[in-house]
């Protein structure tokens, strides 16, 4: 019985991970991309690279830090959309403390 309960818990976790919606921002206006992220909290945006033809790019974009993992912060990112090449959105990233340290103490 414990095995069945444990398996059911894992299935629920897997289903929750698959619940993030996926969109192509190049088929949406920038306002619609931002509104979709604001409404859903976190989405995956997938689009083709402008530099390397045929290379798909994708990432998970979030409304705020509540949708980031522990130790991550919200950082600005830009994605293409129908009406602009640089629609501002947010992505979760680990802070780079080492870079700030080098900039502050090694370049003075």
From TrEMBL:
Q: Where is the signal peptide?
A: 1-19
Which domain of life does the protein's organism represent? Bacteria
User: What are the UniProt keywords, alphabetically?
Assistant: Signal
The name on file for this protein is KTSC domain-containing protein
């Amino acid at each position: 019985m414990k095995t069945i309960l444990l398996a059911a818990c894992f299935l629920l976790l897997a289903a929750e991970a698959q619940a993030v919606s996926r969109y192509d921002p190049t088929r949406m206006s920038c306002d619609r991309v931002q509104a979709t992220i604001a409404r859903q909290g976190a989405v995956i945006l997938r689009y083709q690279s402008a530099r390397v033809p045929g290379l798909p790019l994708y990432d998970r974009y979030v409304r705020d830090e509540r949708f980031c993992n522990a130790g991550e912060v919200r950082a600005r990112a830009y994605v293409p959309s129908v009406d602009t090449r640089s629609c501002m959105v947010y992505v979760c990233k680990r802070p780079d403390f080492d870079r700030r340290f080098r900039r502050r103490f090694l370049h003075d």
